Amino acid sequence: MSALVTVEGLQHLYEGRKVLDVERLEVVEGEILAVVGPNGSGKSTLLRILNLLERPTRGEVRFWNGLSLSGMARAERRELGRQMAMIFQEPLLFKRSVRANVEYGLKARRVDREERRRLAGEMLARLNLSDFAERDAMTLSGGEAQKVTLGRAMVLRPRLLLLDEPLASLDAPSRKDLRAYISGMVREMGVTAVYVSHDYHEVLEIADRLAVLIDGTLLQTGRPGEVFGRPASDVVAEFLGAENLLEGTVRECRGGMAVLDVAGVELEALCELPQGSRVKALIHPEEIALLADALDTGSVRNRLRSRVAGMRVLGGLVKVELDCGFPLVAHITRASREEMGIEPGAEVTAAIKATAIHVMPFTGRGP
Ligand code: ADP
Q: Where in the chain is the domain with CATH 3.40.50.300?
């Protein structure tokens, strides 16, 4: 895995206010790296810096050709810029035919007419837009127009594709369609992509890695499963919509195993933080087993007597709201709900392994 782009010690200030602080970030060759975070967290600023549209206040970006941001000659910048393409939320098309729009970048690169035709024709066919080739681009729907901007970018075979909320102004079916084209083409053509979105749901299926950027600070990078399973902090967990993020303190800690106090209830968890630490504990709802009989829990460390406070059926899954001294949500299958006769008001035991509790330091910035 070699880095196509390496960001180091990057800081950016607008009017004296720091809006970006990225100690280190690598964009790995061939990956789709999704940069996610709430609006205003600096995602677009980061993309603009990568795309050479903005000079950072401090720090360095190293590119694949060995060049670094600082000390790059104008001609080198231009050449590097030509190896990147960017797609924005709004499809920026010219009032020309769809074909002319796709050919635009090729023309700017002085590709001859015949070759332009051939490449644009292939690209339109790949996007199932051949029938639209002679249409005025202004008459396209939002989804079609964004497909044309994708074609216009990809026909140039960029080394790095930068996407800034490319689906944000589309309806749900067009989003799904375009997302499939983006990931399909990026993979097929071996392009590396940095995909920015405020909505992590949008990128979960297509991202190889996530970079979580909140309030300008890069808080975590990793594969989506890792970041969801073990968020680096309560702030990341909160942004990812984690359920069962519980506030507590470390009552004792020995050999990597701790007893936590959560609202007066003891929970055993793997944890290295010293006694007295304030923590947030994350328990994924699917890691909680519900048992009608408290004895039937094997080696599971935590057995919490609970009352069923509420229930919601979500397809094949049932979301059970428990009161076990603090509110806790468990996900079980419909079949096991029926088998156990779980109803509001019922008494059950929630069984949670010590390894299923992910403990994070309490930053005070979470909920
Ligand atoms: P995101 O893409 O995550 O929504 P942005 O990178 O657009 O975030 O913005 C990060 C912060 O920088 C925001 O607070 C925004 O208001 C501010 N900002 C962005 N561009 C400018 C600018 N040109 N001048 C001043 N402040 C800016």
A: 3-229
Topology (CATH level 3) of domain 3-229: Rossmann fold (3.40.50)
- CA–CA distance, 322 with 324 (Å, rounded to integer): 6
Residues of the chain with CATH 2.40.50.100: 245-361
Residue ID of nearest Cα to ligand 1 atom 6: 42
For 256-303, write each residue's pLDDT tens digit: 999 999 999 999 999 999 999 999 999 999 999 998 876 665 778 899
Task: Let me know the angle formed at the C-alpha of 12 by 9 and 16, rounded to the nearest 5 degrees.
Answer: 130
Kindly report the protein residue whose alpha carbon is nearest to atom 19 of ligand 1: 45
**Ligand 1: residues whose CB is within 6 Å?**
14-15, 19, 37, 39-45
Distances (CA, A) of 246 to 154, 228, 365: 45, 16, 14
Let me know: does 3 contact 28? Beta carbons within 8 Å: yes
Q: Which amino acid is residue 14, in one-letter code?
A: Y
Contact 332, 252 (CB under 8 A): no
pLDDT tens digits for range 329-360 = 999 999 999 888 899 999 999 999 999 999 99
Q: Scanning the structure block, which residue is given the tokens 């993020």?
A: 245
Q: How far apart are CA 35 and CA 37, in angstroms?
A: 7
Structure tokens at 170: 């589309």
Residue 143 host element (H or E) = helix 142-154
- C-alpha of residue 42 to centroid of ligand 1, in Å: 6
Structural fold of domain 245-361: OB fold (Dihydrolipoamide Acetyltransferase, E2P) (2.40.50)
CB 246 within 8 A of CB 232: no
